[in-house]
Design brief:
7 strands; Flavoprotein-like_sf; five-stranded parallel sheet; 16% strand; EC 1.7.1.17; 38% helix; Rossmann fold; 7 helices; FMN dependent NADH:quinone oxidoreductase; alpha/beta
């Protein structure tokens, strides 16, 4: 059975198609799940709302605990890493990660960055060994996992080859660390013109929703080993 890890990180509650001033990124991630479940209703969905319930940020104690061998960890270290362990377990159990990630000041929300920092874990999602010489790191996440980043932006032109693409640190900020740990199958769609609140916004919403449907169809083919009920 396919498992999808569905993450929302917007500080705005609710979806923009259901609530005034609701979140566009939540709208897109919900659209993905709805379209997927219409085709594969038996899929297991793991939902985590880091926008409403942010993971704890990485601290000095966290780093100390993470870089201590599991067999040498004291009880306080295990407690410190408990939340991170749960987040990593959810990631490793998933075949597809669908993340609603709005643009805040050119990058991802701090809540989403906290999630990234908690799942990039030495010994769990990447390896480290000084005896390997100049390249002591290697990815540890295996399997046919896919990441889908669904974003929203106030301005326009942040996409590839866009007029201000160089100011977009959302997709790169998410895709780069996930590629580093071994998740290289990457997709994205975004709503733009949010601050314009006119026909361009509506056109961008429609285009992004159609793009999401297209991504779902691509991933249904990639994960076609799952039988449709």
């Amino acid at each position: 059975m396919t498992r999808i890890l569905h993450i929302d990180s917007s500080a705005r509650p609710g979806r923009s198609d259901q609530k005034q001033h609701g979140s566009h990124s939540r709208r897109l991630s919900a659209k993905f799940i709805e379209h997927w479940l219409a085709k594969r209703p038996e899929t297991e969905i793991i939902y985590r709302d880091v926008g409403a319930n942010p993971p704890s940020p990485v601290t000095g104690d966290w780093v100390h605990a993470a870089f201590t061998k599991p067999e040498d960890r004291e009880e306080w270290m295990r407690r410190t890493l408990r939340e991170s362990d749960q987040l990593v377990d959810e990631l490793l159990a998933a075949d597809i990660i669908v993340a609603g990630v709005p643009m805040y000041n050119f990058g991802m929300p701090s809540q989403m960055k906290a999630w990234v920092d908690n799942i990039v874990r030495v010994g769990r999602t990447f390896g480290f060994d000084r005896t390997r010489g100049d390249i002591p790191y290697w990815p540890m996440v295996t399997g046919n996992k896919s990441i889908v980043a669904l974003s929203s932006r106030g301005d326009h032109g942040y996409g590839p080859d866009g007029r201000i693409a160089h100011l977009n640190f959302v997709e790169g900020g998410l895709f780069t660390p996930l590629q580093y740990i071994g998740i290289t199958d990457q997709f994205g769609a975004a709503i733009e013109y949010d601050e314009f609140a006119d026909e361009r916004t509506e056109a961008s919403i429609h285009a992004a929703e159609q793009e999401v449907i297209g991504i779902v169809d691509q991933l249904l083919a990639k994960h076609r080993d799952v039988k449709v009920a």
